[in-house]
Amino acid sequence: MMTSVPQRIVKTITLATICFAGLVAAGCGQQGSTGGQQTPPPEVGTLSVQPQKVTLTTELSGRTSAYFIAEVRPQVSGIVQKRLFVEGKDVKAGEVLYQIDPSAYQAVFDNARAALARAEANLIPVRLKAGRYQELLKINAVSQQESDDATAALKQAEADVESAKAGLETARINLAYTKVTAPISGRIGRSAVTDGALVTANQPAALATIQQISTMYVDVTQSSAELLRLKQSLASGLLKSSEKGQARVRLILEDGSPYQLPGTLKFSEVTVDQTTGSVTLRAVFPNPKQMLLPGMFVRAVVEEGMNEKAILVPQRGVTRNPAGNPMVMLVGEGEKVEPRMIKVARTIGDNWLVSEGLKEGERIIVEGLQKSRPGTVVKAVPFEDKAEGSTKGKTPNATSIK
User: Fold this and answer.
1) 331-345 residue pLDDT tens
2) Which of 28, 111, 331, 372 makes an SS bond possible with 380, Cβ 3.0 to 4.6 Å?
3) Which residues are 258's β-sheet partners?
């Protein structure tokens, strides 16, 4: 009985050891089978390079100015009797704005008219006398000298009449200048003088200013370097100018809202400002509702030209190397990741405009870059961006950042 107990214990321990060994063997078999499977390549989203037509634009800041500006000044001296316009209202060309006391100029006009009448009255007998002397000279009734004196007197009397006419016209003009009229049609500002003020002819201070704002100028500045780059792009054929020869301009107001009516670029200054290195560009905008006022700060989006084979790459797909140069990751032969250095020109929305480094059909990794190490085999799937899908089929506009 004493020897049977240890035998049962030994049998139990042996059985447990066999079971444990079986479990360990089974576990090792599972580990061996799992280690034999290959890890699938990481999945990345790729975008195929496709050239497209892009309208390139430049955003420039500037200010508005009136299409026509006229400063109203008196052309004769006198006392202002009455102001005949309402400040801030529209006036028409020729409309009387101020009335200067005309009494002195009326007297001068009457005197000049009387002088003309006197000269014309003196002309009549002198003309008759000269005619009679011409007839008497034919029969030698008078001498040649007397006939010449009569002819000279006639010409002097005729000159006196012309001088009196000129004096009368001068007096009439000065009398008319007592009515200060609007030189152009437009909106008149505040008046610098009131009734009873003394004004002088051609004084430096304007009585009022009229501005025509139904059409407005927008003057913006562009760096000479950017203008040179634009001309080089047009000359090389990278950009194509508009068919009409006048670039279209869009306007963004001070509050960020767009101005509804487009304008046209009229001209650029012929010289470069040496202090700023910039060139002034002038655009013309219709302003029928007079929403634009002179002196407003605006941003003008100027169309530079059309790039018919532009390559756009999402900004999320472009990285920088330690030197700061832009680069992308491509899926090349054998589905391996390849780095590629590129050159970018500007941003277009959330895309980069690539000028060098990419060809049509190449696949750019735009999603899963953290898995995309050079030389790694990846599984490329087409990347679909909802934002890009909504603008598909439209010609994007490129705006350079200033």
Assistant:
1) 888 888 899 999 988
2) 331
3) 252
